[in-house]
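Feature request, filed as a ticket because there's no other form

It would be nice if the structure record came with a short human-readable summary line next to the tokens. Right now we just get the raw output. Example of a typical job, pasted below so the devs can see what we mean:
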Amino acid sequence: MGFEPLQQSAAYAAAASACGARTRWLELGCGRALAVERGPLRLVSRGPVWEGEPAPAERHRAIRRLARWPGVTLVTAGEEVAGFGLVPLVTPLHHALWDLSGDLRAGLAGKWRNRLVRAEAAVRVGRAGRAALERLVAAEAAQRRARGYRALPAAFTLALDPAALRIWDWQGGAAMAFVVQGQSASYHLGWTSPEGRAAGVHGVMLLRAAEALAAEGVRWLDLGTVDTGAAPGLARFKLGTGAALKRLGATCLVLP
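Raw output as currently delivered:
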């Protein structure tokens, strides 16, 4: 099985519904798509998920069928799509996709591995529960306001199925949250204090989390968007794991 994105999972559908959105699974013949609807807007993010390898023309027809409803349909496909009836609105993003099937330490970039070794001598991280998640959500929301970036609302994270969440914590001074679905997982939320950054906590935490995910059968870990212009340091951190750069499709207005 290939990677399946969080935005096309049952966990995402349940959390979006808990936050007041209407969700529906749409069968497309050559695949399926989770659509999230609010008022007249229908959004399909990181989808459809295809069955096998349909031809580009078949994918194009399937995406066009998503717009057969009385409203506006936006699609951000997991791969590049183009053609009549698809109007690009936002340029494609890139994500870091980490294959967890091999020797994870061997795949690390040299500088990444060196920082990790230094941090491992002093840093101990562990799995955590609901209390750590609530601290993480509050701390990340404050960080978001300070830095001026956008993310899913806190209510969405708190509505995620606990069985799908993997929370990691370091002394209340750093934390990460991952969401698992089958053989795929996504880095969902992270925060670290100045002390955590100085100690190199996030490198240790990310590797321990990846090792634990691989041990439970997860093959792919999506580390999120990579933007070398706006956040070059974060991009180097993600790609330093050995993750591959995956280009998504543009966000398109789909015409009926």
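Something like this underneath would help us a lot:
The first strand starts at residue 22 and ends at 27.
The chain has eight helices and 14 strands.
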